[in-house]
Design a protein that fits this description.
With about 190 residues, the chain is α+β, with helices and mostly antiparallel strands. It folds into two domains: about 1-35; about 50-194, Rieske [2Fe-2S] iron-sulphur domain (Rieske Iron-sulfur Protein). The protein is built from three helices and eleven strands; from the N terminus they run H-H-E-E-E-E-H-E-E-E-E-E-E-E. It has helices at about 1-10, 15-35, 120-125, and strands at about 50-60, 70-75, 85-90, 105-110, 125, 130-135, 140-145, 150-155, 160-170, 170-180, 190-194. A seven-stranded antiparallel beta sheet has the order 2-3-4-9-10-1-11, with no helix packed on it. Strands 5-6-7-8 form a four-stranded antiparallel beta sheet. Strand 5 and strand 6 (about 130-135) form a beta hairpin. The longest helix has 20 residues, at about 15-35.
Length: about 190
């Protein structure tokens, strides 16, 4: 032991083991500090979401939406673009990005963000007890519809793209998409900060 301490004092260079241990500590510290990043105004609210704005399109009416009965929609493009396949659902519980009197109406893309697995068969993939969509038939990813389509389990690393909704009278309109639509290199229109 005494020999080891003397040899370290004689050699100012770090051993490979000490270097790796020290650099691991620096890496962890950097990650922790970066995660504490505040927004530009310093209020600690965090980063704002980027939304791709598309043409406003009527996709449903409040009267036709039944709790826990997802309905297919096509947004932002028409039904010839399979990447626009989505669904709207009245969850019966408040949700992130929800609209309507109870803030419980949300809409999402029907393509899994991992490799584009088809989640459009909502009779099989929507679990009303937990308000989740999935598992994806390809790699079993599930998404929490009350939390902006956040990944609950599975291989996907991105939330399900949420379609931004607004209510005008009894009509429900889609106005943009929060997140990248599967199969697209980028969202076509310039992002709008919300």
């Amino acid at each position: 032991m005494q020999e080891n301490m003397n040899s370290e004092a004689e050699h100012p260079c770090l051993s490979r083991r000490r270097f790796l241990l020290m650099s691991g500590g620096v890496t962890v510290s950097t990650i922790l500090l970066a995660s504490c990043n505040k927004s530009d105004d310093g209020d600690g609210e965090g980063q704002q979401a980027l939304v791709a704005g598309y043409a406003r399109k009527k996709i449903a009416t409040l009267g036709e939406l039944q709790t826990d009965e997802p309905a297919p929609i096509f947004y932002p493009y028409d039904n010839t673009d399979l990447n626009s396949l989505g669904f709207i659902v009245k969850l019966g519980t408040p949700a992130g990005g929800g609209v309507g009197p109870a803030s419980d109406i949300v809409a999402f893309s029907s393509l899994c963000t991992h490799v584009g697995g088809d989640l459009s068969n909502t009779k099989k993939t929507y679990m009303k007890e937990h308000k989740i969509l999935g598992p994806c038939p390809l790699h079993l990813t599930t998404f929490d519809l009350t939390r902006h389509g956040m990944v609950v389990a599975g291989h996907a690393t991105e939330s399900l793209p949420q379609i931004v909704l607004e209510v005008d009278g009894d009509d429900v309109y889609a106005t943009g998409v929060l997140g990248l639509i599967y199969g697209k290199r980028d969202n076509a229109d310039l992002p709008i900060v919300i």
